[in-house]
Amino acid sequence: MNYDVIIAGASFAGLACAKVLAQRGCSVRVLERRADPGTGLHTTGILVHEAAELLELPAELYKPISQVRLYGPSLRHIELASSGYSFLATDTPALMRHLIQDAVESGAHFTLGTAFTHGKETGGRVIVNRGLASCRLLVGADGARSRVAATFALGQNRRFLLGVEVEYTGLTVDNPEAFHCFLDQRYAPGYIGWVIPGPKVMQVGLAAHHTQKPDMAAFTRHIAPLLHSQRPRIVGRRGGLIPVGGLAGPFCNDKVILVGDAAGTVSPLTAGGIHTALHYGNRLGELAAAYLHKNGPHPGDVLKHEYPRFQHKLLFRELFNRTPNWCFDAAIASPFAQPTAKAVFFLKKRLPPR
Ligand SMILES: Cc1cc2nc3c(=O)[nH]c(=O)nc-3n(C[C@H](O)[C@H](O)[C@H](O)COP(=O)(O)OP(=O)(O)OC[C@H]3O[C@@H](n4cnc5c(N)ncnc54)[C@H](O)[C@@H]3O)c2cc1C
């Protein structure tokens, strides 16, 4: 079958792109290696306020969280709150199924349980998986270790955090309305630990430089005084790589373009990538539709000016990596902790103007 666009990967970036392309009259097929994109998740699924604004989500899919508790290594903490800004903890499996349904209703076609394995440019088209289908433009929305990027010798992510997360029922936490963040280089070197009271499960997670496997058992023992259990049960696990080295370049050629984690658009500071995946997935959909049907510019020529460069955030990441634990405890105790942490958590996440 011939399509205008084939997208590898049915997650935030691929689904946003597929929906916009289909709405604009393009023929689009999404290949996804998982048979059910609501299973085998790697993400915690917290949406920043601006990401939530890009989606119209039914209320049962999320729980707004407007408080953050930030802990130092000694478990001393500060409380942060914002009346005008909230995060959304999501029922992520249901959210993914909702986004797929949305794209299907817009006219996108899906082949689930089928990975992109092979691609070749020939006669002005890209032939995918040795003749399964062909397209005028191939989109790699296939995550941190993109097979599309490797196949077409595009830029690949080189620096990662490794995140692991356990989902519990029967567990509560002090202040169950807050997002609990733990600064501690012993358990989360290079990042944080977290506890999120989600809409259905309690999510306890940890991320660290990808060369060091996070020790969830030790972290859970460390934060045990804050957890209260009534017969806790582990009901799921999530985990995966978070690319934090900034934009992977080159991110496109004439017939192939990367978006989302495949392109490295995750914030190196916060390691959040859902907002940018949705935003640039939408944007690539608009640009690709105009390029294919209205003689618009090549999407890569536009996105090279729009994709984030993260220079400052990469510097902050280096600084964070070198911060010893005593500094975190001293910072939490200082009068500057509140305004600085509030700026990181609650400041509006602006993306480069279009
Ligand atoms: C543990 C963890 C927690 C995180 N928590 C948050 C958070 O709370 N908030 C936030 O903003 N960000 C978070 N992130 C980052 C965020 O999940 C990603 O930035 C976001 O999911 C990127 O979306 P994407 O669509 O680009 O890629 P992905 O979500 O990685 O999706 C890639 C898709 O491609 C599919 N795929 C892979 N290879 C192939 C192939 N060869 N063929 C076909 N399909 C393929 C995969 O199955 C997957 O569906 C977290 C990341 C991790 C690892």
TrEMBL record:
<dbReference type="Pfam" id="PF01494">
    <property type="entry name" value="FAD_binding_3"/>
</dbReference>
<feature type="domain" description="FAD-binding">
    <location>
        <begin position="3"/>
        <end position="291"/>
    </location>
</feature>
<protein>
    <submittedName>
        <fullName>Monooxygenase, FAD-binding</fullName>
    </submittedName>
</protein>
<dbReference type="InterPro" id="IPR036188">
    <property type="entry name" value="FAD/NAD-bd_sf"/>
</dbReference>
<keyword id="KW-0503">Monooxygenase</keyword>
<keyword id="KW-0560">Oxidoreductase</keyword>
<dbReference type="GO" id="GO:0004497">
    <property type="term" value="F:monooxygenase activity"/>
</dbReference>
<dbReference type="GO" id="GO:0071949">
    <property type="term" value="F:FAD binding"/>
</dbReference>
<dbReference type="InterPro" id="IPR002938">
    <property type="entry name" value="FAD-bd"/>
</dbReference>
<dbReference type="InterPro" id="IPR050407">
    <property type="entry name" value="Geranylgeranyl_reductase"/>
</dbReference>
